[in-house]
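Handout, section B. The chain below has 498 residues.
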Amino acid sequence: MKSQTTLMMKRRFAALKTGHLDTKNRIRDFSHTGHAKHLQRRQRDPQLNWLFLVFLILFSPFLRFNSSNNSHFSTARAETNSQGGSLCRMTSVSTASQQGTGSPTVQRERPHKVNDKYKVPTRRIDDAIGLLQKLVKSFPRVTARELARAVGKIISMSPIMDIFKTGRWCDSARIEDQRLQQLRDMLPTFCLKSRAENTLTQYRYAFNAFCRWCGAFIPSISALPAADEHVALYIISIAKDYKSSSKIQLAIHSISWAHQLAGLKDPCESALVKLTKEGAIRETSKPVVKKEPITPDHLKLLVQRYKSNNLYNMRTLCMCLLGFAGFLRFSELANIRLMDVSFNDVCMKINIVKSKTDVYKEGHELCIARTHGDTCPVHTLEEYISLLGVEVNSSDYLFRSLTFCKYANVYKVRRDNRPLSYTRASEIVLHAFGEIGLDKSKFGIHSLRSGGATAAAAAGINDRLFKKHGRWRSEKAKDGYVRESIQEKLFVTQNLGI
């Protein structure tokens, strides 16, 4: 017995030297030493947190402009091209302009002048300030993930191009009359409002990509104004790298838009660019794979699965039923406010304030009838609004982010009045589709609009009412949403008399 005890002690000593212990000993060892290690970590964490905060405060300007150097272009500097002209490479846009008719001179702009040509979106500044304020309030109990988010917010505050500092805008003299000068200061705002906000965002990123491409060569080539040959070469580069016709179209529109704003000759109107564009689109075109439409049977399964007193489930169900019944695009669905919805005994009316095809904001009144069934969108929406616990005629968005209260075990609406993002809404809808057994790769948010249109076409709805209800401007766009059944496709040949 004594020899067995001695052997067990030797094995225990060997295990301690090698660091291997059984589960019981590991738990006992952790219980003895873990508390001391936790106290040491708590004493060390505030020091690291203070160090990271000082780093954020001191190096935030460096991070901001260093990120612009990496993601957009190098810091503004002037170089002399082979012909002797002056090339000014800026952070967000490259320009080449002749400085008079005399001998060329190399101009180097100072850092404080560079800032005048760029601007940071106000939304990004507000988000970064709000996150930093939360960090300061919760200090010193700050996690590494929260600090990483703060760094990411600061890096995302990289300046974007200000096209109104180039071309026709850089040489405009100041008007002595203050009234005319105030009107002139409003010119950029009204020029930008000629396009939708999402379109401007896409144009901005696409043109910055063209500027990066121009700045990658030695010597660098001019992006604004751009030569038609360089634009044609850029189209070929996109076709080889991305093999996407939509990328080519976006690049052409963004370059043309930038030259029009700057008052410069549009290189995209050149015959060389048009021929290259047509050839690249033919080379990269692929068959369009559209998402499958949702059917009324799918909606019945969603009602069985999600209809309850749970706010989260009711939000998901309302999004699906409204998107199907109203042929709603995501932008229309996300921007519905409570004050835009009104109910009566027969139907509900939704005021679509802003739509893709309503650029002048004339508005559209969408009427959805009460079907008095389990899938009735009107009754479901009334139940959802009652669960929200907010004022019916308020300006709050109908579909907003929710937060889960652990103590009450319920979902509540978040205080910030922001609509759901496309990414989050897509996750919610696709998760619901997966819960009823659908293949999520074949469906999307647009499946709701396509499903409603397909069901209406199968029911023989009048084309005029069909087109007006879906807010389509052309027959081609309307017909693109309708999916014919196999019986409808066979109807033609079955009636040929052969």
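Note. The first strand starts at residue 77 and ends at 80. Compare this with the example in section A.
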